[in-house]
């Protein structure tokens, strides 16, 4: 059977072949529990240390600021449990919206960019102990690929003395992240979005701020996240980060070429297609589209039958398609069940490592789209 063409890299990136090799080497090293005091335990500590160095090099921070968790979702929950008030945007991932339980949700404009005036209105009202208020804005939206003005968000939050978190799960590997330069207090990351296995994430926390853990036990991860470390996940996350940092082609030029080629084809063949966030600053790999008359579940099924693995902008964990809260928040409530996301490899290094997407595939995909 011919493998379907995978264009769902924002859902997950296949484990990179360089990462797979490093994982097999790691398994061959022996039984590793980093808490053991013997040879194998020391190996484990070394693997964790190297991975932290690699990841911190990719995002420019001190490796001691990293706390490994099982996912970005867990990292977000760990952080949010430390705050009474969380101010966040309407287009955040459910990991943020569900765990913040916030009723301080500010809107975005039609291009899917957060509205800073609204954010300021909210912050002005919160005059009490703002050190216990967390502003949380994602760097890159997972459905539209729209890049948010993180530096401006930090500036505003600091003006009102709040702390700031950024969900960077979809930014890592797609755009340059400089944690120290942004002035952020917290950042959360997900390994499987850059070619590590699933089951590994990280909270990056400016170490001047005391946090309380949510999982207690053996004191791993500086007491912030107990439980024997996921050595294979950590190894894989570190190797994927190293691959991106050290790649000579640390760009997205080829990814952008493919995405833009496809977008242009769609515009020619199906001019009725809505392109979400078209006028905004978007990452190079993401394209969120809708046909006004075609429901997303039907489009997905038909594309699947044609051997294209893409995603509804709004699939939930049960695999069912629900209304996209992102598309609704952008003012297109009538299209919130119609959106389909095409996501290419996050960058050229991963494209080279993993993918065989050709313009011929994209020609066929654009034709399928126009015949839905
Ligand atoms: N935040 C964003 C923007 C995401 O896209 C995702 C995953 O899709 C997450 C958070 C959650 O990441 P994880 O799968 O590591 O829990």
Summarize the helices and strands and which ones pair or pack:
Blueprint: E1 5-6, H1 17-29, H2 39-59, E2 66-69, H3 72-80, E3 85-89, H4 94-100, E4 104-106, H5 116-125, E5 133-136, H6 150-159, E6 163-167, H7 179-182, E7 186-190, E8 201-205, H8 231-246, H9 253-269, E9 274-275, E10 286-290, H10 296-305, E11 308-309, E12 311-312, H11 325-329, E13 340-343, H12 348-354, H13 359-370
Parallel strand pairs: 1-11, 3-4, 3-5, 5-6, 6-7
Antiparallel strand pairs: 2-8, 7-8, 9-10, 10-13, 12-13
Helix pairs in contact: 1-8, 2-8, 3-4, 5-6, 9-13
The protein binds pyridoxal-5'-phosphate.
What's a concise summary of this model?
The chain is α/β, with parallel strands linked by helices and 372 residues long. It is 38% helix and 13% strand.
Q: What can you see in these coordinates?
A:
By secondary structure, the chain is of the alpha/beta class. It folds into two domains: 5-15 and 249-370, Aspartate Aminotransferase, domain 1, CATH 3.90.1150.10; 17-246, Type I PLP-dependent aspartate aminotransferase-like (Major domain) (Aspartate Aminotransferase, domain 2, 3-Layer(aba) Sandwich). The chain is 38% helix and 13% strand. It contains 13 helices and 13 strands. It has helices at 17-29, 39-59, 72-80, 94-100, 116-125, 150-159, 179-182, 231-246, 253-269, 296-305, 325-329, 348-354, 359-370; strands at 5-6, 66-69, 85-89, 104-106, 133-136, 163-167, 186-190, 201-205, 274-275, 286-290, 308-309, 311-312, 340-343. A seven-stranded mixed beta sheet has the order 2-8-7-6-5-3-4, sandwiched between helices. Strands 9-10-13-12 form a four-stranded antiparallel beta sheet, covered by helices on one side. The protein has a two-stranded parallel ribbon with strand order 1-11. Strand 3, helix 4 (94-100) and strand 4 (104-106) form a beta-alpha-beta unit. Helix 2 runs parallel beside helix 8 (231-246) and helix 3 runs parallel beside helix 4. The two termini are 24 Å apart. Bound molecules: pyridoxal-5'-phosphate.
